[in-house]
Amino acid sequence: VQLVESGGGSVQAGASLRLSCVASGFTYSSHYMAWFRQAPGLERERVAGITQAGATIYADSVKGRFTISRDNAANTLYLSIDSLQPEDTAMYYCAAPLQGFWGRGTQVTVSS
Q1: Which of 11, 23, 16 lies closest to 94 in space, CA to CA?
Q2: Which of helix, strand or coil describes residue 66?
Q3: Which string of b and e fits 42-62 if b means at least 16 CB within 10 Å?
Q4: What angle do CA 100, 27, 25 make, to 5 degrees?
């Protein structure tokens, strides 16, 4: 099983990013997927989740700025982030959390 994230970077406040996660080694389309983030000194938090059918859920702190989506044909999960703020700085992880499958993360750093 592999989950490989990409798309992070260092940006200015107000910028946008699109994170991607390519899955392999399991039946991606059959599983609930989610994005988590962890900032230094803080606990990991789920920022967005998406069911096999495409229903989505977001943390209150990111509603309206984050959009999770999935392409089951391409085994790829996405997270679009608008209006990035310094408090969004964290390592972002892709996961099939109910199966215990996690990627290694992609770093997002936002400067003011």
Answers
A1: 23
A2: strand
A3: eeeebbbbbeeeeeeebeeeb
A4: 70
- Tens-place pLDDT, residues 17-64: 999 999 999 999 999 999 999 999 999 999 999 999 999 999 999 999
Count of all residues that appear for the chain in the document: 112
58 and 46 Cβ atoms separated by less than 8 Å: no
Amino acid at 109: T
Please list, in sequence order, all residues whose beta carbon lies within 8 angstroms of the beta carbon of residue 109, skipping any fewer than 6 positions away: 8, 9, 10, 11, 89
Pairwise CA distance, residues 54 & 72, whole Å: 10
Q: How far apart are CA 64 and CA 42, in angstroms?
A: 23
